[in-house]
Design goal:
The protein is an alpha+beta fold and about 180 residues long. The chain has one domain. It contains four helices and eleven strands, in the order βααβββαβββββαββ. The strands form four sheets. The protein has a three-stranded antiparallel β-sheet with strand order 3-9-5. Strands 4-8-7 form a three-stranded antiparallel β-sheet, with no helix packed on it. Strand 10 (about 170-175) and strand 11 (about 175-180) form a beta hairpin. Helix 1 runs antiparallel to helix 3. The longest helix is centred in the middle third of the chain and has 13 residues, at about 60-75. The protein starts with about 25 loop residues before the first strand and ends with a strand.
Amino acid sequence: MGHTEVDCADPSPRNVVGKLPYDVKFRAPEEKRRRLQSFAQVASESFGSGSSSRSRLSRNSDTRAEDQCKHEAGRNRGEHDETTSQLKRSGDFNEVLEASEQAGGITRPERQMEGFRNTVEVCGFHGLGYIGSQYTWDNRQDGGRNVKVRLDRGLATSPFLDMFPETNVWHLQRQNQIIAA
């Protein structure tokens, strides 16, 4: 099986909440099927459907312990035998892995970023890096009020990277708007 490349010459515009209107799924041949869990399921259990702008610091230790149990339980949920396995996820996760992925604005709590890092690890995902602009979102304000953040990213499992070792993620800029492809 050779290298597969997905070209995005005209990326889709974001919807009103700033999210790209698609999800990425790759179809693997029968012999490459894997039993993998869904990132979306574990991430929704970890972060809910809320934005990263809401702080999780007010949650007590019992709630955090319950979240960790959900992380662990998520290892066995979401496994499936379908030929279309979710080997790769990409898009706007509304969270950063490291403080260096944000310039300006209120500094994100380390605990919040750690929660996202833990979820990525539990799911067995690896960052795909990027080519292009460091940031994928910009509030377009001037001076000290400007905030830029890398909210969009590509993540993949080791089996995906074994099948597609030449995978790249491009951050494309279009008409003063940054789009992740």
